[in-house]
Design brief:
By secondary structure, the protein is mainly β. The chain is built from no helices and 26 strands.
């Protein structure tokens, strides 16, 4: 485990940390890390943040997960983050309890400048929120900055979500759209 410009403010019981895990502050900022009980951080996880990262109880960060940026990232209890997922904490990121984030997803909270297109400005930061019991099913899903994913929402594989979603609904596609035929009393 590598610690650089990092203060671990809390470590719960039964915490498992794999090999080649890195906790460090983002650029000249300091990382404050709080780890709940029964947290599992697998191999090659990188948390490079310039603020607070709070991992609730029973959180799992699978191999090669990256949390990166100068803001804060809060992950609720019993949330599972799949392999090779990138979490952007630049504009702040909040992930609720009992969420399941599939393989190789990207959750963004900022958009950078496009240097070769000086007349086009997409730059900005905005907090991204996944409410409780969100399921990013399968993987390869992108959540754009400032999006709020409603409680009990399911997002299908290979989707790009660029707008807020309603709770208890299913979305999919590029861009992600409400998929009515999958919404039933079993999902609500």
């Amino acid at each position: 485990m590598i610690l650089n410009n990092c203060t671990i403010t809390h470590t719960g019981i039964n915490v498992q940390i794999g090999e080649r895990v890195e906790f460090k502050g983002f650029k000249d900022k300091h990382l404050f890390l709080s780890i709940g009980d029964n947290v599992r951080i697998e191999n090659d996880v990188r948390i490079v943040v310039g603020g607070l990262v709070s991992l609730g109880n029973n959180v799992v960060l699978h191999n090669h997960v990256t949390i990166h940026g100068p803001g804060d990232c809060v992950i609720g209890d019993r949330t599972w983050i799949g392999q090779q997922t990138a979490l952007d904490a630049t504009g702040n990121l909040e992930i609720g309890e009992d969420c399941c984030i599939g393989f190789s997803c990207q959750i963004w909270s900022h958009v950078g400048r496009v240097p070769k297109l000086p007349n086009i400005r997409f730059e900005g930061r905005k907090k991204t929120i996944l409410k409780d019991r969100v399921w990013l099913q399968g993987g390869l899903i992108t959540i754009n900055p400032g999006v709020v994913i409603g409680e009990d929402c399911v997002i299908f594989s290979n989707s790009v979500v660029n707008h807020d979603t309603l709770p208890n609904k299913v979305y999919g596609g590029v861009p992600a759209k409400l998929i009515e035929k999958f919404n039933s009393p079993y999902i609500e």
